[in-house]
Amino acid sequence: MRIPGTRPAGIFTAGLAQRLINLYGLLPGARAVILGSGDIGLIMARRLILEDIEVVGVFELMPHANGLNRNIVQCLQDFDIPLHLSTTIVEIHGDHRVNQVTVAPVDASFRPLIDQAWQIAATRCLYRLG
Which architecture characterizes domain 11-127 according to CATH? Predict the structure, then answer.
């Protein structure tokens, strides 16, 4: 994961978060930010909501979502989870645990527009592999 900042506890792949919930019955936090709009991330956004975890939003670097349209509708739109296209996480904050992330829109060359960045409080950050 090429994001500046520390690597505090609370950063999971969507697959690991899915495993924690499905196999071990563990909740990965109270407030989540998801980086990447692939199908697993979209499905996990819905699952986190169903487990009473607030999902601040799904942030996608590309100008289009990567998941199936039905997952965008059933997992995000039906649960009022915002999808932020052409946006990425530019910094992770927290000493021992994630406490916030900085997100920013990107230009046509996928370079973050730091002057337009904003911070989001979060207890967990999920991202897709690849």
Answer: 3-Layer(bba) Sandwich (3.50)
Identify the helix (H) or strand (E) that includes residue 39.
helix 39-50
Residue 6 CB contacts under 8 Å (≥ 6 apart), including other chains:
92, 93, 94, 95
Name the pTM for this structure.
0.88
- What does the pLDDT profile of the chain (130 residues) look like in tens digits? 566 666 778 888 888 888 888 898 888 888 899 999 999 999 999 999 999 999 999 999 999 999 999 999 999 999 999 999 999 999 888 888 888 899 999 999 999 999 999 999 877 666 554 3
Instruction: Give domain limits for the chain.
Output: 11-127
